[in-house]
Write a structure and sequence with these properties.
alpha+beta, NADH Oxidase, 5-stranded antiparallel sheet, 7 helices, 38% helix, globular, oxidoreductase
Length: 215
């Protein structure tokens, strides 16, 4: 495997759904390497209250996959779901439909993905998160979770950023034995990928989203 440049990693780390290899096992050492890189991410006050649950047990993966499928099928009925949002640009509309199709594929197969990674953050002595702005809390786990995906990409693995399972966060926490002070941030299915490599995705021109000095 040829190591990728930082630019290649940053521009080709895709949310991979349909091309996850459901049959090829993943060496746990690769997951450990990616997570070791993730631990270099920033953490508020350097508290490092992050945790990463790595689920490889077939029964547990199937159970989590079923919760994800239920949440996904409900989400697909909403106006916010990809494919349900009309776009004047036909290219954008086709892209959204592809996202919808691949999302449905992942929803049906989440429980078959070889490795499921759940990044979580601990709030000692606090079981209910405070109302209002929680950016400081989630800013201490989400960068690490994304760093994990970047590191996995560099190691030849593919992953997908998902959060729909959080509709059943308590049920998944009970399944995995999480204490009430540990809060899940995402569900990242990880596997080898089928087909060739990845290229940068089409994105809006920078000048459409860049605001210099004020809106």
């Amino acid at each position: 495997m040829t190591e990728l440049s930082a630019h290649e990693v940053l521009t080709t780390t895709r949310t991979v759904r349909r091309r996850l290899d459901l049959d090829r096992p993943v060496d746990l050492d690769l997951i450990r390497q990616a997570l070791s890189t993730a631990l270099q991410a920033p953490s508020g006050s350097n508290a490092q209250r992050w945790h990463f649950l790595v689920i490889t047990d077939a029964d547990q993966r199937a159970a989590i996959g079923e919760y994800y499928r239920r949440a996904a099928e409900a989400y697909f009925q909403t106006a916010e779901s990809a494919g349900n949002q009309p776009h004047e640009d036909p290219n954008r509309q086709r892209t959204q439909q592809r996202v919808r199709n691949s999302s449905e594929h992942l929803a049906q197969n989440m429980g078959r993905v070889p490795v499921l990674v759940i990044p979580a953050i601990e709030t000692p002595n606090v079981t209910e998160l405070p109302a209002g702005n929680q950016s400081g809390l989630w800013g201490s786990i989400l960068p690490a979770a994304w760093s994990y995906m970047l590191a996995a990409r560099n190691l030849g693995l593919a992953a997908a950023w998902t959060t729909l399972h959080l509709k059943y966060e308590r049920e998944v926490a009970e399944l995995l034995g999480l204490p009430p002070t540990v809060h899940q941030a995402a569900l990242i299915p990880t596997a080898h990928h089928t087909g060739d490599g990845f290229k940068p995705a089409p994105r809006q021109p920078l000048d459409e989203v860049l605001h210099l000095n004020r809106w």
